[in-house]
Specification:
Layout (H helix, E strand, L loop, with lengths): L9 H17 L6 H8 L4 H11 L6 H12 L1 H19 L7 H9 L4 H17 L3 H7 L3 H26 L2 H10 L2 H54 L4 H11 L7 H4 L1 H7 L10 E5 L6 H14 L3 E6 L10 H15 L2 H13 L5 H12 L6 E6 L8 H14 L3 E7 L1 H7 L5 E3 L2 H18 L6 H15 L3 H11 L5 H9 L4 H16 L2 H16 L4 E2 H15 L16 H8 L4 E4 L2 E4 L2 H7 L12 H4 L5 H16 L14 H7 L3 H12 L7 H12 L2 H14 L6 H16 L2 H23 L4 H14 L32 H11 L8 H12 L6 H18 L4 H12 L6 H13 L3 H13 L7 H16 L3 H18 L5 H16 L3 H18 L5 H16 L3 H18 L5 H16 L3 H18 L5 H16 L3 H18 L5 H16 L3 H18 L5 H16 L3 H18 L5 H18 L3
Parallel strand pairs: 1-4, 1-5, 2-3, 3-4
Antiparallel strand pairs: 6-8, 7-8
Helix pairs in contact: 1-9, 2-6, 3-4, 3-6, 4-7, 5-9, 6-9, 7-11, 9-11, 11-17, 12-15, 16-18, 17-18, 21-22, 21-23, 22-24, 26-31, 27-31, 31-33, 31-34, 33-36, 37-38, 38-41, 40-42, 41-43, 43-44, 43-45, 44-45, 45-46, 46-47, 47-48, 48-49, 49-50, 49-51, 50-51, 51-52, 52-53, 53-54, 54-55, 55-56, ...
């Protein structure tokens, strides 16, 4: 029989199978007691067979034994298949009958007939041979199609049993006759074949169903994997949620408005261009505040979407830090574009990005370019609020024009205020949103608003309201919205007319008008809330969540309350906070998606005007709503410190805890943790209250958690370095207030107490103890301390001619170390196993988890700090770090660069710094300029002054743009330009830059700050270089007076100022005064640094030189020899400074006319110099000249002439024939030749 050409629906098959099963079951003797027992009993078929054979005493029969063994063989299988079939029978057919109940019944009622048992065993074997995949059956037994097949099996088994039962219920003679007419085997053949067929169907169905399910599962998992990958990519890329912004703007749009843009001649021409240049593909739309630019942008996006165009949207925001940079722009545009090009291609692009670690902006733009190349249809980039972008507007236009040049199918629309777009727009296609363009839309908007108000929509008022609003709107939707809201408050027609007569003009007058209304209608509590909401919303580092603002306000009230009346914190929380905040802020703020924002950037600009420009000068209460930035930062900082100190349960936060859960449990904690110190550094001079709260927090256990968490925040490239800069600014804030030392001591005590606590609780070898110990070691390392920019500043004291009298100053490392000590701490042999572990981690990572980066950074720092030299594993590690730089945070790379720099491995440090800068190529963030600054320092140390100057100037330009001209980092960059000119002996240029620095420091830090005195000191150094010694003395004395008062007489800065006063007297040949100052300096250095410190030895050396200049050679020799012993011990016998000193000892013997001794010291000096210096080094030839002079004095003229000629030849080669020193040696040589020729 052929198969039907179609299969009935599964429901029909299921119904048919159910009916067949029920019909078969109905043919069984349901009323029979034995059958009921078989249904209920739990004995297996094999057990029934055994009991039957025993009952009829046939168990010893060989045939019975074989049959019994057969049944026992299938015991487990029978249980398994019965369990699967029974589910289908009982749930679908509703028959409370186990599969093997009919079999048990037949075995029992047949009074043991071997033929019955054989037939049943054959049936079981038939099914067993076909149904072997129990795991599949059990897993799929609820599948409808499989249940149909299983019901058929049940039906066949029942039918088989019914046939068998009826056969053996016949009498013996009847059965015998039947066997002759139709053998029993033939009688069961049909049902047996049907059973065999249905069993195969079950198995095939199960396999097919499993394959289908597996395919569905794979598709489901693939879909889920793709969704997970998208979520992962989104979390990694961190695009701004511009979709929410777009939806909000679109919901604000009135139906039928903004259509004028599609008929505007400029827009039509621009949109229909073909074969256009990049600038032609760019359209700029500009208009004044509140004219509807953002809503127009969303309308354009909506219309293009409806045309099935590829359109991508971004909106800059001056009130949302997450939407203020070019980096945020490209992340958002790239993410939208990836949704358009298909999963495989977008995954490939994202995987390529991720494999290189945290992306730099150029990587993101390249990825956007790659993705855009996959779109062949027209596409539009709509970018709103370009005037609110903090990054360079020129860079924005350059980037867009470069992309448009590569993608002729792309169009870009920029919207913003005219102050930017009119000034630098590179396109000839521009549209100004004028009143005439907006008039129809404003009419529609007014009409819509009128319809919403019962009092405004009455015919007698509608026309006059509409006309007045339209005439005064000046094309500003924002103004219309605010005025319609105000008019809608009217309780009568009279009030409407009165309000219409007194409408303010323009946004500025409107904001003033609204503030006046607030003052009139709000009570003191409400005004306090309004002031708090406006202040916190304006200065917050990011838009505050409603709950965050609710907690911040509550804590502000609680902290200001009388301690005697203090209540539980919950009592201070606003009830119905959204309604209350909107009520007290008079339409100046909006709350969307649980986020509190100002309605427009112009509100922030209005509220934060300088006090002198505040328009409400005659209204004291209204003026109280002005947002004073310092006061507002102080208030938010106070709240932050209060919240950090509130919750005892977070005092022992471990870095393994879920931070997201912690932020949920404590609503204001995440903001307080990240930004409190940002607000502190911008809160003006610290008050006693602030300092007290800061001290309490730092002394508490909560500060421990903050210390451990902060490095992770710093490591996150996504943070753009703001946390790093916040820490810099906070330290400067403490320094300016004179409390830096006090708080350093507090933190030191916290470090020590926490270490002792961890050792006691966890033991020395626990990871928590080790991590804390490493953090302590770093904090105690002056080079590691988070520094401002004047760390490692060193003066390169310029050398004059080192003549026989040695009256000039020399370039020595101690002179460089002096200035390093003045400003140190303000900016600035691992084992093979450790290095190998770090290399393995880098080699097998794409993006390292921040916690892993932190732990390995701490280990690497401590090991390098101890090693002081680069072992082979560390050299290899450097190569791996550079190869895997994309997997490592910029801040980690910066720290590693600092490690190598401190080891004196400047080339290695430069490689790491440049790897970090490559990740920040187009990002304008503080850490970028910190690294550029470090590169400048290294070039300065390598005496590559032109390169150093180039990097310091780059730093200055960036920091002026990013931080402002009066920021301390900017001033340090200015100072370092002065240092570089000073090192090049361009003293006039150096003086100019130092004077700029001094003006800025006095304005920023005050005239009585130690950093101000450093610059005063440097001005003295420059005047000394200019040989204006009276001026130099004046500046050194000014620095000394301030430092003695501020720092004390034993501070290193004070001692250096004293020493330079001595040097100035020395340069004026006032040797007695110089000696007096040198001796004072020496006493202080011995007390502060110790007798064996290099700077102490420097003072001893200057005392020797002063005695020499007074021709007190014995005293000079005594001090030189003391100094030499110390330098040989500290620096080594072959160090350049040691050799200079040996030469000066020779000079002293020469001055005593002890020529053999002088010659011996000169020869030792020459021998060591020739061994360690290049053959053409000038120092070698100067020593040769000294040897020549000794031979001349001894009358050994031939030897003298020989050494003069060697010295002259070398000086001509190195200095040139016209150099002053060359000419001097030439003169001496010629004089000696003449004397020899005259017979001397």
């Amino acid at each position: 029989m052929s198969s039907p050409s179609f299969s009935p629906p599964s429901t029909s098959l299921q119904r048919q199978a159910i009916e067949n099963a029920r019909a078969a079951f109905a043919r069984l003797p349901n009323g029979d007691v034995v059958f009921r027992q078989c249904i209920n009993q739990k004995d297996t078929v094999a057990e029934i067979m055994k009991m039957t054979t025993e009952r009829y005493r046939s168990h010893r029969d060989k045939r019975s034994s074989r049959l019994l063994q057969g049944f026992q063989h299938y015991t487990l299988w029978l249980q398994n298949i019965s369990g699967v079939v029974d589910v289908a029978v009982q749930t679908q057919a509703g028959i409370g009958c186990p599969l093997w109940a009919p079999v048990k019944f037949v075995l029992q009622v047949s009074k043991y007939h071997a033929q019955v048992a054989e037939k049943i065993l054959d049936m079981i074997q038939t099914i067993s041979d076909t149904l072997t995949r129990f795991q599949i059956y059990e897993k799929l037994h609820k599948d409808t199609i499989l249940q149909i097949a299983l019901l058929n099996i049940f039906t066949d088994v029942v039918v088989f049993c019914v046939v068998t039962f009826r056969y053996f219920r016949r009498g013996a003679l009847v059965r015998l006759g039947g066997l002759i007419a139709s053998p029993f085997k033939e009688e069961l053949a049909e049902v047996t074949e049907r059973l065999k067929t249905h069993a195969k169907i079950v198995d095939h169905t199960a396999v097919a169903t499993e394959l289908v399910r597996a395919s569905e599962f794979r598709n489901h998992m693939l879909s889920r994997e793709r969704l997970d990958m998208k979520l992962k990519y989104e979390q990694w890329l961190k695009p701004s949620n511009v979709r929410e912004v777009y939806q909000h703007l679109l919901s604000s749009k009135l139906y039928g408005t903004c259509n004028w843009i599609w008929a505007h001649p400029t827009f039509v021409k621009w949109n229909n261009l073909s074969n256009s240049t990049a600038s032609d593909q760019l359209l700029c739309i500009h208009g004044t505040n509140g004219c509807g630019k953002s809503v127009l942008a969303s309308s354009i996006v909506e219309a293009l979407n409806s045309q099935q165009q590829h359109v991508f949207f971004f909106s800059f925001s001056g009130t949302d830090a997450s939407r203020q940079t070019l980096d945020a722009l490209v992340r958002a545009l790239l993410w939208q574009l990836l949704q358009e090009i298909g999963d495989e291609q977008s995954f490939s692009i994202m995987q390529s990005l991720i494999s290189r670690g945290p992306p730099i902006s150029s990587d993101l733009w390249d990825a956007f370019d790659r993705a855009a190349s996959l779109v062949t249809e027209p596409m539009y980039w709509v970018i709103d609020g370009v005037d609110e972008c903090k990054d360079s507007s020129q860079e924005l236009f350059r980037q867009l024009l470069d992309l448009l040049a590569l993608h002729s199918n792309a169009r870009a629309i920029l919207l913003g205020r005219p102050c930017l777009l009119q000034a630098i727009s590179p396109t000839i296609y521009a549209i100004e949103i004028s009143f005439s363009l907006n008039k129809a839309d404003i009419d529609s908007f007014i009409s819509s608003e009128l319809s919403k108000s019962e009092v405004l929509s009455v015919p007698e008022l509608r026309h006059s309201v509409s006309k007045t609003i339209q005439e005064k709107s000046d094309g500003m939707f924002l103004w219309v919205k605010l005025m319609m809201e105000d008019l809608s408050k009217s309780a009568s027609r009279y009030e409407v007319i009165h309000r219409l007569r007194n409408l303010p003009r323009g946004l500025e007058e409107t904001y003033r008008f609204l503030l006046g209304q607030l003052v009139d209608r709000l009570d003191d509590f409400e005004l306090r809330l309004a002031r708090s909401v406006l202040a916190f919303t304006v200065v917050a580092c990011r838009p505050l969540k409603l709950e965050e603002l609710q907690y911040a306000h509550a804590l502000e009230i609680k902290l200001a309350s009388d301690p005697l009346e203090e209540r539980p914190f919950q009592d201070y929380l606003l009830v119905r906070p959204m309604q209350k905040i909107l009520h007290v802020c008079g339409g100046l703020v909006a709350i969307r998606g649980g986020i509190v924002r100002l309605i427009h950037l112009s509100v922030k600009e209005f509220l934060t005007r300088p006090e002198g420009a505040w328009p409400c000068e005659n209204d004291h209460k209204a003026k109280g709503l002005r947002v004073n930035l310092e006061d507002s930062h102080r208030a938010l900082a106070t709240v932050g410190l209060g919240y950090l100190g509130m919750n005892e349960s977070i005092s022992r936060l471990q870095l393994t805890d879920s931070l997201s859960e912690l932020w949920t449990w404590y609503p204001f904690l995440e903001y307080a943790w990240r930004y409190t110190f940002h607000h502190l550094s911008r809160s003006g001079a610290p008050s006693s209250i602030i300092l007290s709260k800061l001290s309490l927090f730092l002394r508490s256990e909560k500060s421990v958690s903050w210390v451990e968490l902060w490095p992770i925040l710093l490591l996150d490239d996504g943070s753009t370095g703001s946390e790093f800069q916040d820490l810099m600014d906070f330290m400067l804030w403490l320094q300016k207030s004179g409390h830096e030392q006090n708080f350093s001591e507090i933190l030191g005590n916290v470090f020590n107490e926490e270490l002792a606590s961890r050792v006691s609780a966890f033991g020395e070898d626990d990871v928590r103890t080790k991590r804390w110990r490493m953090i302590m070691e770093l904090s105690e390392d002056e080079d590691w301390q988070i520094q401002t920019k004047d760390g490692d500043v060193i003066v390169n004291v310029q050398t004059e001619d080192r003549n026989l009298n040695a009256e000039s100053e020399d370039v020595t490392s101690n002179a460089q170390d002096e200035f390093a000590d003045i400003t140190s701490g303000v900016r600035t042999a691992t084992t093979s196993t450790e290095a190998s572990q770090f290399m393995a981690l880098l080699n097998h990572a794409t993006t390292l988890p921040l916690q892993r980066q932190l732990d390995w950074l701490l280990r690497l720092q401590c090991q390098l700090h101890r090693a002081k030299v680069l072992t082979d594993p560390l050299k290899l590690l450097l190569r791996i770090i550079l190869q895997k730089a994309s997997s490592v945070s910029v801040n980690v790379l910066w720290a590693i660069g600092r490690f190598y720099e401190r080891l004196g491995k400047y080339n290695e440090a430069l490689e790491v710094y440049h790897a970090a800068l490559a990740k920040l190529e187009n990002r304008e963030v503080p850490i970028k300029f910190q690294i550029i600054y470090c590169v400048g320092i290294i070039h300065w140390k390598l005496q590559s002054y032109d390169m150093a100057l180039e990097f310091f100037q780059k730093t200055l330009i960036g920091e002026e743009r990013l931080l402002g001209t009066d920021h301390i980092n900017t001033l340090y960059s200015i100072e370092w330009i002065g240092n570089t000119y000073n090192s090049q002996q361009q003293f006039s240029e150096a003086l100019e830059w130092y004077q700029k620095t001094l003006i800025g420091k006095e304005r920023l830090l005050g005239t009585d700050h130690k950093d101000t005195f450093v610059t005063i000191y440097m001005i003295g150094v420059v005047y000394h270089g200019l040989e204006q010694y009276d001026n130099a003395l004046k500046w050194f004395q000014k620095a000394l007076i301030g430092e003695e008062r501020l720092l004390g007489t034993d501070h290193i800065n004070t001692l250096y100022s004293m020493e330079w006063i001595g040097r100035t007297y020395y340069s004026q040949q006032q040797f007695s005064e110089a000696l007096e100052w040198y001796q004072k300096t020496l006493i202080g250095k011995e007390r502060l640094l110790g007798a064996d410190h290099i700077n102490t030895l420097s003072s001893m050396e200057w005392i020797g030189r002063t005695y020499y200049s007074q021709q007190q050679f014995s005293e000079a020799l005594e001090w030189y020899q003391k100094t030499l012993i110390g330098k040989e011990r500290l620096l080594g016998a072959d160090h350049i400074n040691t050799l200079y000193l040996m030469e000066w000892i020779g000079d002293t013997y020469y001055g005593q006319q002890q020529y053999p001794e002088a010659l011996g010291w000169y020869q030792k000096t020459l021998m060591r110099r020739e061994a360690m210096l290049e053959a053409n080094d000038g120092d070698i030839f100067w020593t040769m000249e000294r040897i020549a002079k000794v031979y001349d004095k001894q009358g050994q003229y031939d030897k003298a002439l020989e050494w003069y000629q060697k010295a002259l030849t070398g000086m001509v080669a190195t200095l040139g024939a016209d150099h002053e020193k060359t000419l001097d040696v030439k003169h001496n040589t010629e004089s000696l030749i003449q004397q020899i020729s005259e017979g001397r």
